[in-house]
Amino acid sequence: MLKQYLQLKLSQKLSPQQIQLMKLIQLPTQAFEERIKQEIEENPALETGKEESEDPFEIETNDDFESTEEDQSEEINIEDYLSDDDTPDYKTSLSSSPAEDENQTPYAAGQTFYGYVIEQLSTFNLEPEQYLIAEYLVGSLDESGYLRRPLEDIIDDLAFSVGLFINEDQLKEALTTVQQLDPSGIGARDVSECLSLQLKRQTKSASRDLAIEIIDESFDLFSKKHFDKILQKHKIDEDALKTAIAKIERLNPKPGGGFSSGLRMNRQIVPDFILRIEDDQIDLQLNARNAPELHLSHSYKELFETYKQGGTNAAQKEAVQFVKQKLDAAKWFIDAIRQRQQTLIVTLQAIVNYQTAYFLSGDERDLKPMILRDIAELTGLDISTISRVANSKYIDTPYGTQLVKSYFSEAMTNEEGESVSTREIKSILKELIESEDKSKPLTDEKLGKLLKEKGYKVARRTVAKYREQLDLPVARLRKSL
Fold first, then answer.
1. Mean per-residue pLDDT of the chain
2. Which of 6, 29, 60, 326 fits as disulfide partner to 45, beta carbons 3.0 to 4.6 Å?
3. Is 294 left (phi over 0), alpha (psi -120 to 50) or beta?
4. 329 and 17 in contact (C-beta within 8 Å)?
5. Among candidate residues 360, 366, 367, the one with its CA nearest the CA of residue 404
């Protein structure tokens, strides 16, 4: 049975302006500049540079288009704005100005890995069928240059997709040809084969032969760094093993990794904030590239006033609505940028004030435990806003360019009952690992004991977690002769 009833419900909805502001806040400097360029291209009512008029009139936002007996200005033709072709001139014009060309994002045409290998393949004297097989194998290589697919699957693919029926011996013969191409090591089916192929290209020597022997016969022991077992198995001394290991360490486990997949772009980190210290005083500034000079187009404001005073026919109303929409969008965008600037500087100033001791000394041990909620309470902003600022912004300091997010860390209590930052513990842990005896690296349990001696009570599993976050391997893999 259907019934009708009233229900009161509270819901929170974001306006388009709020959504636009949040998207702008999370953009780093380079992406922010691209966003501004995009907006200027899409909205001709938005212009860059200082505004010429010092007393610009306000744009009314009401929809009252009352008619007037005054004649429309002959200089303005509505048909120019309501023609069938809606594509503005600024989207179709091409400038050849050298100054503009210099400001373009630098691109470099990079040769693809596939194209580079195929060019070499054409220098071999192969039968058409052999060339087709080899070409298919090259197309089956992954980005690192490995052939990950089973040979049986490739044989089936050649039969179904190309109509070429071959046996495994023919495929292996073609694979041998591919493995002779540059870069050395491509066409390998695993890491050990890749390293072995590279070693076999080197000049014959005792150390090279020993390295090949270790890779081919004892790769598992080598990868796990069981050097004692390798010495016993191959009946060699420690010096010979050191020389062989040195040869292996100079090899490239990803021979295809040095090639781009197409166009590559030169990228660099642009700091969003600049922090300088003079006479123990911290000076924080927002990168000027985050504060562009934007204003409304005078011609569009004049156009709006002219159309608004015109007739009430459909064409006039449509023209006024179009111009008004562009002007409103430009105003919203300018306001959003101003709010973005204010949000960024307020958030970073709060972080700097919270971590003053660290910024004055540069010692990570002076970092205080700090979470997003701490800065949100200081600034009155939402935690999500603080997160958007911290996750993608960099700050240029006397100690290097750092990610703002790296200043946040959880708290732990030391033996004296004081709260210390987990980043401080990670810093000490890294120092312990860097100063250890690499022939007998410290286990996580021993590292935990050393941290306890320094006043930090940390469980072994916590040591393992911090070590992994520092991207440091386990003791067995840190071992060296």
1. 78
2. 326
3. beta
4. no
5. 367
